[in-house]
Automatic annotation (TrEMBL), chain A:
Source organism, top-level taxon: Bacteria
Domain named STAS: residues: 2-113
Cited InterPro entries: Bact_StressResp_Reg, STAS_dom, STAS_dom_sf
PANTHER family (alphabetical): RSBT ANTAGONIST PROTEIN RSBS, RSBT ANTAGONIST PROTEIN RSBS-RELATED
Organism: Actinomadura syzygii
Protein name per UniProt: STAS domain-containing protein
Length: 139, 136
C-alpha cells in the first residue's frame, strides 16, 4: 500500500496526493495526519488534489473527515487544486463538501491559511493578500 | 445493441477498485466521451466497484463499447456479484440510506452520474448493476 507523504512548511502540513487513492491509503492518511498535527502543533492542513482525476464519495468523505478532525485539533484544512471535471462530478454525486474550505491552487491555499509560501516575502510576514476570506473567522 | 467483445475483470480487493477506475477511464476515453463524462463514469464505476467488493463479497466488472437506442456510442459497464443481494432495492436507491459505513451515495450517486442505470438483485441471489454513458 502506498502512503501519502506529509510535508511541513512552517505552520502548515502539506499533503500532495500523487497516486491513485486506494481506500486503505485514504484511511492511513487520516491517521498519519492526525498524529502529525499533534506532533507538530500545525495550525493548517493543505490537501493538494491537483493530480487527482477522480474523487468518489469515499475519497470526498475523507476530505470532510480530515477537516473536522483537524479542526478539533486547532488546525484549519484547505483542499486545493480541484479539477473542474471533479467538481462537476462531485456536485452531481450529491457531495457538495460544504464543510471543507477550498482554494484554486496551493498559493491561494497558503494565503487562506495566513501562511504564504516561503519565497513569498520576509519570514513571518504573509504576502499582501488579495481581499478574500480571512483565516480568523473560521467556523 | 452491444458489441460482442468486452473485457471482464475481477473485483476481489480494494486494489481492484483502483484498477477498475483505470480500465474504465481508458475505455471512456477510447469511446470518445468528454473529459467531464469520463470523470462521471469513472466515479460511478468506483462507487459500484466498491459496493461489489465491500457488500457483494467480490465479483466482476465487464466493460464494453456499446451503442445506445438513439445511435450514440459509449461505454457500458456490468458489475456482478454473488453476494447476499439487496433486500430492499428502492431503499438502497434512495439517497442517504446506507447499509453500512458508507455515506449512502453509492447507488443513487452512480445512477445520477450515468445515462443508463439498471439494477437486478434479490435477497440471497447476488446483484447485477448495469450502467452506461453515451457521447453527446
Amino acid at each position: 500500500m502506498d502512503r501519502v507523504p506529509i510535508l511541513k512548511i512552517g505552520d502548515v502540513l502539506l499533503v500532495s496526493i500523487q497516486t491513485d487513492l486506494q481506500d486503505q491509503t485514504v484511511l492511513a492518511l487520516q491517521e498519519d495526519l492526525s498524529e502529525r498535527i499533534v506532533a507538530t502543533g500545525a495550525h493548517g492542513v493543505i490537501i493538494d488534489i491537483t493530480a487527482v482525476d477522480v474523487v468518489d464519495s469515499f475519497i470526498g468523505r475523507m476530505f470532510a473527515t480530515i477537516a473536522s478532525m483537524s479542526r478539533l485539533m486547532d488546525a484549519e484544512t484547505v483542499v486545493v487544486g480541484m479539477r473542474p471535471a471533479v467538481a462537476i462530478t462531485l456536485v452531481e454525486l450529491g457531495l457538495s463538501l460544504g464543510g471543507v474550505r477550498t482554494a484554486l491552487d496551493l498559493e491561494e491555499g497558503m494565503r487562506l491559511l495566513g501562511a504564504g509560501l516561503p519565497h513569498a516575502g520576509p519570514a513571518g510576514s504573509a504576502r499582501p493578500a488579495r481581499p478574500g476570506p480571512a483565516l480568523a473567522d473560521g467556523p | 445493441m452491444t458489441t460482442p467483445s468486452g473485457e471482464e475483470m475481477p473485483i476481489a480487493s480494494s486494489d481492484d477498485v483502483v484498477r477498475v477506475r483505470q480500465v474504465v477511464r481508458a475505455a471512456a476515453a477510447a469511446a470518445g466521451l468528454s473529459l467531464v463524462d469520463q470523470t462521471k463514469l469513472v466515479t460511478a464505476a468506483s462507487e459500484l466497484a466498491r459496493n461489489t467488493y465491500a457488500h457483494g463479497g467480490g465479483g466482476a466488472m465487464r466493460v464494453e463499447r456499446a451503442t445506445g437506442e438513439d445511435g450514440r456510442k459509449g461505454v457500458r459497464l456490468v458489475f456482478t456479484d454473488e453476494g447476499p443481494g439487496i433486500a430492499d432495492v428502492d431503499r438502497a436507491l434512495s439517497e442517504g440510506w446506507s447499509s453500512g459505513t458508507g455515506l449512502g451515495l453509492g447507488l443513487p450517486g452512480a445512477r445520477q452520474l450515468c445515462d443508463e442505470f439498471g439494477l437486478r438483485s434479490e435477497a440471497g441471489g447476488g446483484t447485477t448493476v448495469t450502467v452506461a454513458k453515451w457521447t453527446r
